[in-house]
Amino acid sequence: MKNTLQNDLLLRAARREKTERAPVWFMRQAGRYLPEYRQIRAKHDFLTMVKTPELAAEVTIQPVDLVGVDAAIIFSDILTVPEAMGMKLVIEEGKGGPRFPDPIRLYTQIRDLKDIDPTRDLKYVADAITLTVDRLAGRVPLIGFSGAPWTLFCYMVEGSGSKDFRYAKEMIFTRPDEAHKLLQKIAGAVADYLVMQIEAGADVVQIFDTWAGILTPNDFRDFSLQYIGDIVRDVKKRTNNRAPVIVFCKGANQSLLEIATTGCDVIGLDWTIDIAEVKALIGDEVALQGNLDPSLLFASEEVITDRVNEIAENMGDCTGHIFNLGHGITPDVDPDRARAFVRAAKAAYQK
Amino acid sequence: MKNTLQNDLLLRAARREKTERAPVWFMRQAGRYLPEYRQIRAKHDFLTMVKTPELAAEVTIQPVDLVGVDAAIIFSDILTVPEAMGMKLVIEEGKGGPRFPDPIRLYTQIRDLKDIDPTRDLKYVADAITLTVDRLAGRVPLIGFSGAPWTLFCYMVEGSGSKDFRYAKEMIFTRPDEAHKLLQKIAGAVADYLVMQIEAGADVVQIFDTWAGILTPNDFRDFSLQYIGDIVRDVKKRTNNRAPVIVFCKGANQSLLEIATTGCDVIGLDWTIDIAEVKALIGDEVALQGNLDPSLLFASEEVITDRVNEIAENMGDCTGHIFNLGHGITPDVDPDRARAFVRAAKAAYQK
């Protein structure tokens, strides 16, 4: 039996219900900028932490205790899904980001990807969620997440991050049928994965489309957004619309109106758009999450506070607003600045 | 005495005069994707090529002969301006991009930057332009260029490219007065530099703001666009509006309407926005340049042609359109695909 939430601000904001203030959390809040995280990380490699529910739960809860955020987000990685689908994942210390040494370039590789059952293949995530929810004891909601199909596609086809995403682009431009086959497969896995996370106890889920911004608006619609829409509808149907869904498509500001039509509850915004403009464009259909420039956490508390207040003024009132950074927190930020952001966000709208 | 231009499509398009078709050129067209460029580059380091008018002229003209573009753009680098201002510039083979080993972090460094006289300190650029214009003998116009103050500021403060531009952001957020002092200094140098290029024979100039997209719309206005506006007005006044000015602020699609108010003749577009939408937004005030996804040059000629035609259809008619990629050409593109793009662009609107 789940505890009743003592702080359900995030859930109310996501559903555009009345709130006293805007809730605040931020992407990568369980991470390297926290010395307490680095202490644990020094003893275990990254994937071990992701796959050990005890460790994942511990670092997931750290920012709730240490920074005062209004939600926890399960400590994990978007690349666990492709790994579960059968791709070898390598994370070497100090050698750049994670990579797939055997990226997908041939149709046979797409065909050979496993149809996953997340309750079996990603059971460690469900276990980490259940344990975290138990430990949180209703203090704040827990957010589950997944990479969007297009972003996972990029990693799976490139094998790593990339400057120009040559292979991913080559596949969508020259072999669109194969690309769609792969995207469909990923989208099915992501939907199952999110359903599992909600059933394990996640109160909200977020879909991250980190590489949305490298596509033309048309290609974004065809190769990214249609799959996100399928996932949102499928997840909501299968879980009886129990958990609000946040969709964050970084750099896709040209397509915000279309993102709203996926049926998501919240749209995540990066910092390159004025939230007032988005509100004027989209109206009251969805809640908005964001959108402080993450680099502001290198500035003074005073400047951080001014900029947080500016976002609140642009938003007008706190209904349907969730404070967040426009991208993950930078690892070398001083935790005091993260706390300053959280303090300012909690005080905004309270005049 | 300058030759009369045999192909003045670019000039007419930039001024929104009647044209038979849209002219085409592309960013980094004189570059590594061409084997003929690599042959010369194998014998000389990059900066030697930039600083030797004979070599610069040769590679500048290569894409006119080899690819059939409607304009040449002088072979140079945006970082020659900070170098002339007194910053040591290092370009090491195979060691990532160019860098400044002594980046600007202190006010004394800003104060100590030289007030340049481009006719003396960047004379090699003027000489390269004069020689190129002479060699072109009126076949196509020559484009001069400069980095925008904000983009040069980023390089000068970071010392190199960056993922999060921590130091540049830190300066504008915590020491805005110093940041403005530096931006003013750079803007003055850029204006003088562009005037010199026009006087040396450049028919058109382009201002590149490669890092426009990392700023919020407000910060973009304060720390980038106001300086671009100053430069555009100053250059036009001092050169009697002789050369059209193209402003390309990559990733600043939220600010296109404001970019149009700088008085520039042409706005360069990246590929993440529909050109029809821009036309509807801005109207007939300025010409538009762009905006094919550079990754399309990894696709087949058929796909390239389809996408070029799609841009032409979205644009509606060729008045005030200059075909270009939405960013520099990727070095590993097959030159045949670049030629396919140029062929398709020349054939578009001709139905």
In terms of topology, how is this protein built?
2 copies of one chain form a homodimer.
Chain A lengths: L8 H6 L20 H9 L2 H6 L1 H14 L5 E2 L6 H5 L22 H6 L5 H4 L1 H14 L5 E6 L1 H10 L7 H9 L1 H25 L3 E6 L7 H22 L6 E5 L6 H5 L5 E3 L6 H8 L4 E6 L8 H15 L5 E5 L9 H13 L4
Parallel strand pairs in A: 1-2, 2-3, 3-4, 4-5, 5-6, 6-7
Helix pairs in contact in A: 4-8, 8-11, 9-10, 9-11, 10-11, 11-12, 15-16
List keywords for this structure.
homodimer, 351 residues, alpha/beta, TIM Barrel, seven-stranded parallel beta sheet, 49% helix
Overall description:
Two copies of one chain form a homodimer. Chain A has a single domain (9-347), classed as Alpha-Beta Barrel (TIM Barrel), CATH 3.20.20.210. Helix content of chain A is 49%, strand content 9%. Chain A is built from 16 helices and seven strands. The mean pLDDT of chain A is 96. In chain A, strands 1-2-3-4-5-6-7 form a seven-stranded parallel sheet. Chain A is globular. With 351 residues, chain A is of the alpha/beta class. In chain A, strand 5, helix 14 (275-282) and strand 6 form a beta-alpha-beta unit.
